[in-house]
Amino acid sequence: MRNVDPDFMAALADAPERGIVPRKLVSVTAREFGHPTVLETVSFWTGDENVDITVTSGVDSQPSTRLFYGSVNLEVGSIPRVSDLTIQTVPVSISQLADPVQQLVRGYDVRLGKVEIWDMLLDPATRLPVGVPQLVFLGEVDGSPIDTPSVGGEGLVTIRCVSDAISMLTRKNYTKSSYEAQKLRGGDEWGKYANTVKTWRIPWGQAV
């Protein structure tokens, strides 16, 4: 069960009387080309200006103040709410005209990059954040095709995001049956003939 910020919940409860101003926040953490251990995080939101917003990291659960770029036509697809092990897929589209978007998808290696999505509410009167943005999705990049627009059109970058925890459960660990990997554990040779044993024909019983 998630612990939701009380101010956030209060704003939702007061929405019928006071109104509500929802915003989406998205952060993508990618690797530098040629330097896979160097990580860069680029963030966007559905607002109009570039602003610093403090969020709770989905990776280490610590507060993190990040620069969120606005006016990028950010659209976040619906986030499936499932109770089974179905892999959740969330499309995130951004205008490719924005310089930060170009830097993200062309300047960094976004493959399998971490994706964090938050819901944030603004006070209808002050337009200031109400409570702490709530993390609603943690996953990884599964694809980021860039659509080339026609003359006068605006291209989009659609980032396909998949649920991190569930997708990890579907991955196969081939080292479990790899002889080279197994023999590193004290000379274990259990898988020495794993590649050929399926072709063996073992005599059984007596020939008639």
The gist of it:
The protein is mainly beta and 208 residues long.
Textual characterization of the structure:
By secondary structure, the chain is mainly beta. It has helices at about 5-15, 15-20, 100-105, 165-170, 180; strands at about 20-30, 35-45, 50-55, 65-70, 75, 90-95, 110-120, 135-145, 155-165. Strands 3-4-2-1-7-8-9-6-5 form a nine-stranded mixed sheet. A hairpin with a 2-residue loop joins strand 1 (about 20-30) and strand 2. The N and C termini lie far apart (about 65 Å).
Strand-helix topology:
Elements: H1 6-13, H2 15-18, E1 21-32, E2 35-45, E3 51-56, E4 63-69, E5 75-76, E6 89-95, H3 99-107, E7 108-122, E8 134-143, E9 156-163, H4 164-169, H5 179-182
Parallel strand pairs: 2-4
Antiparallel strand pairs: 1-2, 1-7, 3-4, 5-6, 6-9, 7-8, 8-9
Mean pLDDT: 84
How much of the sequence lies in strands comes to 35-45%
Instruction: Tell how many strands the DSSP assignment holds.
Output: 9
Low-confidence stretches: none
Bulk shape: elongated
Radius of gyration: 24 Å
| Structural class computed from helices and strand pairing | mainly beta
- How many helix segments? 5
Strand order of the largest sheet: 3-4-2-1-7-8-9-6-5
Q: What's the helical proportion of residues?
A: 10-25%
Distance between the termini: 67 Å
Q: Indicate how many domains the architecture comprises.
A: 2
Task: Describe the oligomeric state of these chains in a short phrase.
Answer: single chain
